[in-house]
Amino acid sequence: MECAEIRSGFASGRVPDGPAVSAHVQACPHCRVLFESDARLGRALALGQLAAPEPGQLFEAVSRDLQAETGPRARLRSLATSTRVMALLVLAVTLTAYQLLANRRPDFASYSPGVFWGIATLLFAALAAGAWKLLRGPLTPLDSSRAGWVLPLWLALPALAALLAPLGAQAGEGVTGWGGPFACFGYGAALVIPLLLWWWLSERRDSVPLAGLVAAGAVAGLAANLVLHAHCPSVHLGHLLLGHASIGVAWAVGLGLLSGRLQRSR
Fold first, then answer.
1. In this structure, are residues 197 and 87 in contact, taking their beta carbons and an 8 Å threshold?
2. Sign of CA dihedral 40, 205, 16, 9
């Protein structure tokens, strides 16, 4: 559901309703105003009954909006979507390159190059697509059929990478040993905090819907798995699922809970 669809509904002489409308209105403060007082403002807009503002009031409103959109975050939010996405991907690539150059997996020389770069390409492609959709916004509400498979797919892709990882390894401890999954979980989750911080600083929406928070967690998880793929030699399925693939789910749940708590405290 988009803002334009809400306006079209009012223009057609009806008050838009339904689960998708409710989800959009909860996330969009501009559309929410249209539904207040039995949708009086929305009906008035549709009928063209709004009084024209006085020039002084109009300049006052513009000045208030301009003052609200100042500072470093306002400048970041004003950047083109492609620039904001590229910056996030550069952060992810830089973190991965550091692992490869200074802290790479001990079995890098013996691990199959085809499998290694194949998994890295899969994770990076999913990361790029997720970052573009996340920063482009708005995301489809969680109760829609599209979000019903896209978001779980982003969250599940690291698990697919975990299933493919043993194909490139030589028989040995990496295949049979757990190797400390919680250490990897903490390391990977912490390394992607700069990506989440960049997303928050450059996010244009004042109120991010739940679908956006889940997508942000999924993107963080994909970036963490890309970094850990270059760092961790374990290809034990239990280790990879618990210590790598679960990071995106954990960030999605954490962001959702944090957002809900902040909204209740207001």
1. no
2. positive
DSSP one-letter code for 145: T
Q: Give CA angle at 130 (87, 148), nearest 5°.
A: 160
Contacts of 45 (CB under 8 A, 6+ apart): 7, 10, 34
Between the CA of residue 239 and those of 81, 106, 182, 243, what are the distances in Å? 36, 16, 9, 5
Handedness of CA 146, 18, 260, 81 (dihedral sign): positive
Model pLDDT for residues 78-102, shown as the tens digit of each residue: 888 899 999 999 999 999 999 999 9
**Nearest-CA neighbor of 182 among 115, 135, 250?**
250
Q: How confident is the model at residue 142 (pLDDT cuts 50, 70, 90)?
A: very low
Considering the entire predicted model, what is its pTM?
0.72
Q: For residue 228, how many C-alpha atoms fall within 13 Å in the half-sphere facing its CB?
A: 35
Contact of 1 with 24, CB cutoff 8 Å: yes
The first and second tokens of residue 211, run together, are: 């679908």
Vertex 98: Cα angle to 93 and 102 (nearest 5): 160
Tokens 């085809």 belong to residue: 114
Element at 266 (helix H, strand E): none
Q: Give percent helix, percent strand, percent coil of the chain, each to the nearest 5.
A: 75, 0, 25
pLDDT tens track for 4-59: 777 777 776 677 888 888 877 777 777 777 777 777 777 676 666 545 555 555 55
Q: What percent of the chain has pLDDT over 70?
A: 79
Place of tokens 């999605």: 252
DSSP 244: I
